[in-house]
Write a structure and sequence with these properties.
Layout (H helix, E strand, L loop, with lengths): L2 H11 L24 H19 L23 H11 L10 H14 L8 H10 L4 H16 L16 H7 L2 H14 L1 H11 L5 H9 L10 H7 L5 H11 L6 H13 E3 L2 E2 L7 H5 L12 H11 L16 H14 L2 H10 L3 H6 L2 H9 L6 H9 L6 H13 L3 H14 L5 H11 L5 H22 L2
Antiparallel strand pairs: 1-2
Helix pairs in contact: 1-2, 3-4, 4-6, 4-24, 5-6, 7-8, 8-9, 10-12, 11-12, 15-16, 16-17, 20-22, 21-23, 22-24, 23-24
Length: 469
């Protein structure tokens, strides 16, 4: 029994039943304690013993394997002002109607492009948004650097940002849950796409259908013609979900054998220009290539099959000059093909002919600004197009669009596109926004509240650019 145990025993049963010998307790310093009563002696010795236990306790020797330190990060740290701004954005101390996420993305993008890093103390705060929002993970990974990846390896919730040692990849893929294996494949596709594809192929036959479909979907990252053999194999899969996943990926490979087969079917239906015959019932080969009974809204089965065939045919088969005379179903098929193949020539030609939010969103910011800049009518349709335009918007377009909305008193367009304007306007438009705001002259005007939010976001964005220039 230790002196502390003896002391506790006396305190529990009382000094009358269990006398406590202060001098014989063995606790260092007990000889210097004087007490008038046995109870006072117990309390005095408890104070001394507790202090001794807290200050004099020797921790046990660590017998585990010491973790290797993080790899060095040679990037210079960002400026104190930039660090303070990032902290305010991450903690949401800055209040914006559109939220702080777009400006946080701007900060991370500027830091990455400038080759600078955030302060190490903010790494935990940076890892949290990536944990809750998967779309932010790629950018966060680039900015946190080796120390952030090292830190993530010590918290299972941050495992998405941790670097998996090459020697552990196969074991983790074999023993992880489906979600963990999918995350591992997605990360591996960004750096070693062939290795990730090989892992999928090695266990393909033994995986359930849902897992095979999920594994195929990871090939979207770094998709190339090298993935075609596996996708062709998946076209013969017994599960419809797996076949659908394969055809969805092959739609993005206009140089594949399936694309050539679809082109042959489309050319057999082609009359002239943008005119096509409607296809009949699909044969077994067409069904294998993904021609299904799916019906487009408001269209019959034959027209829907034509759209499916055109959507999977390489756009190099056709001529953009045929767009003006094409029927609705043909335009729909070509639009789907352009979006999947990311063909900027076709996307631009289709958007010039008949712009839609989906087409505008797929264009480069410069081309989208050019097309929108030529549209005169500031109606709800224009507001939807402007809201879809990708950013960052060019400086000239940003200033021009603010002036047009102000002159045209287009408050409805302002409401529809407010979030996009806060996210994508160039800081050069800040003066135009502030002048518009001053001209309103009242806080009760709904447009004034919207403009204040936009001006606030532009001010922060300008500061970000300044700190990383």
């Amino acid at each position: 029994m230790t002196a502390w145990d003896d002391l506790l025993g006396t305190a529990l049963v009382g000094t009358g039943r269990r006398p406590f010998d202060l001098a014989a307790s063995g606790i260092p310093g007990a000889g210097n304690v004087t007490a008038g009563t046995p109870e006072a002696a117990v309390l005095a010795e408890a104070a001394l013993a507790a202090g001794y236990r807290r200050a004099g306790w020797t921790p046990p020797t660590w017998r585990g394997t010491r973790a290797e330190p993080a790899a060095p990060d040679d990037r210079p740290e960002c400026t104190p002002a930039a660090a303070q701004l990032l902290e305010l954005l991450l903690t949401r101390a800055i209040r914006l109607e559109a939220g702080t996420e777009p400006l946080t993305t701007d900060w991370l993008t500027a830091a990455r492009d400038a080759g600078r890093r955030p302060p190490h103390r903010l790494l935990p705060e940076l890892l949290r948004p990536g944990t809750t929002t998967a779309t932010a993970r790629g950018l966060v990974r680039e900015v946190i650097g080796p120390r952030g990846a090292w830190l993530a390896g010590h918290n299972p919730a941050w495992s998405w940002a941790a670097t998996v040692p090459p020697g552990e990849v196969a074991e983790r893929f074999a023993t992880g849950t489906r979600a963990e294996r999918v995350a591992l494949l997605t990360d591996l596709r960004a750096t070693e796409p062939a290795r990730a594809r090989d892992l999928v192929g090695e266990t393909w036959a033994a995986e359930p259908a849902a897992t095979r479909a999920a594994f195929l979907d990871t090939l979207r990252t770094g998709l190339s013609g090298d993935d075609e053999p596996l996708l062709e194999r998946a076209l013969d899969d017994r599960a419809a979900t797996v076949r659908a996943a394969a055809t969805a990926l092959l739609d993005h490979l206009p140089g594949s054998a399936r694309a050539r087969r679809m082109a042959a079917r489309a050319q057999a239906l082609h009359q002239r220009g943008g005119a096509f015959d409607l296809p009949g019932e699909p044969d077994e080969a067409a069904r294998r290539d993904g021609v299904t009974g799916h019906r487009e809204p408001g269209l019959g089965r034959a027209a829907s099959r034509l759209i499916q065939i055109l959507a999977a045919t390489p756009l190099s088969t056709w001529d953009t000059r045929w767009i003006a005379a094409a029927d609705h179903d043909v335009l729909l098929g070509w639009t789907k093909a352009a979006l999947r193949q990311r063909d900027q020539d076709w996307l631009t030609a289709l958007a010039r002919h008949q712009p839609t939010p989906e087409l505008i969103a797929a264009l480069t910011p410069e081309v989208a600004a050019e097309i929108l800049g030529g549209r005169q009518k500031l109606d709800a349709r224009f507001g939807a197009l402007l809201a879809a335009a990708p950013g960052p918007w060019p400086a000239a377009f940003s200033t021009e669009i603010v002036g047009r909305l102000r002159t045209g008193k287009a408050d409805a367009v302002l409401r529809l596109a407010a979030r996009a304007m806060a996210e994508h306007l160039h800081p050069a438009a800040l003066a135009a926004v502030e002048n518009w705001l001053l001209s309103l002259g009242t806080d009760r005007n709904p447009a004034a509240r919207t403009l204040r939010g936009i001006a606030h976001a532009l001010t922060i964005r300008a500061t970000i650019l300044q700190e990383f220039t």
